[in-house]
Write a structure and sequence with these properties.
alpha/beta, 3-stranded mixed sheet, 9 helices
Length: about 300
């Protein structure tokens, strides 16, 4: 196709600046899980936006932060390596004139790359319009930005302008995926992430960091009207197990019914979901268990 553009765009930023919300908004469907807790996104999630002009493949990376354990190191290394592999970098920040240590750490990484960097000031629906210029002014010289675009991922403000600007910087190239594809994530992985999202949203702050979700089985019934899914929520302590299950199983039931609703919308059929909870102490510092829960070492061993 003449003048067809295609390329890879990554979203980076400190945890909880709205990267997954923005990606879901841009592709028009929920793929990445969202919550108001840090470390929601653990893997690179590849999603696809296709229009007549071209195709953008988004990589939603884990937030860049100071690592505290092996899982944290893995997440940071995946995010930083992505910067060198893409055509455009979107750096999401909160609307603020204060540039903290976390932001300065990211700016240092960005100064080392030749990739065009867009500063995307998110959550502009939470501030006065007149203030936005002061935020732009605070950030504009910290990195040599290709574009500075304020948006509200939640409300969809300026997100079309952001898509148009990205297209300008993409090279001419092939259509990597057919137009119906919106993600390369296996269904099992998305289903596991849905369970993890519901746990994140419903549990106390100290527990979600220490959970992973494994899909034990996922089988479609012969007539195709129902999918049976068995999943295990893995936590690090016996006390956490009790909280996840809740009084008379109420919390686990709530997580399960919310997850089932999202799964049925995703898979377009009825879902019979069964959840279990298991304790695996310190799984986040075990190479074997990190790999077992889908965080592949091959993603970062050649850094």
């Amino acid at each position: 196709m003449k003048n067809y553009k295609s390329g890879f765009v990554t979203l980076i930023g400190r945890p909880n600046v709205g990267k997954s919300t923005l990606m879901n908004r841009l592709i028009g469907q929920k793929i990445a899980i969202t919550s108001n807790k840090p470390q929601t996104t653990r893997n690179r999630i590849q999603t696809v936006y296709t229009c007549d002009e071209g195709q953008i493949i988004f990589l939603d990376t884990p937030g860049i932060h100071k690592a505290k354990n092996k899982l944290g190191e893995y997440m940071v290394s995946v995010a930083e390596r992505t910067l060198r592999e893409v055509d455009v970098i979107l750096w999401l920040v909160e609307p603020s004139t204060f540039i903290g240590a976390g932001e300065r750490h990211i700016a240092e990484q960005l100064q080392k790359v030749k990739t065009p960097v867009f500063l995307v000031i998110n959550k502009i629906d939470t501030v006065e319009k007149a203030e936005i210029l002061t935020f732009i002014d605070a950030y504009k010289d910290i990195v040599d930005f290709a574009e500075i675009i304020p948006v509200s991922a939640l409300r969809g403000e300026n997100t079309d302008d952001l898509l148009k600007a990205m297209m300008k910087y993409l090279p001419q190239g092939p259509q990597y995926y057919d137009e119906d594809t919106i993600t390369d994530q296996p269904e099992r992985q998305i289903v596991a992430e849905i369970v993890r999202e519901k746990a994140l949203r419903n549990l106390n702050d100290e527990i979600p960091h220490g959970i992973a979700v494994a899909i034990d089985q996922m089988n479609e019934r012969p007539n195709g009207s129902l999918i049976d899914i068995d999943a295990t929520i893995v936590c690090e302590r016996n006390s956490h197990k009790g909280i996840i299950i809740g009084k008379q199983g109420a919390m686990l039931k709530k997580i399960g019914s919310e997850a089932r609703r999202d799964m049925e919308a995703l898979l377009d059929c009825k879902v019979n979901l069964k959840l279990w909870v298991k304790v695996k102490k310190d799984w986040r510092d075990s190479d074997f268990l990190i790999k077992n829960f889908g965080y592949r070492k091959t993603d970062y061993e050649d850094l």
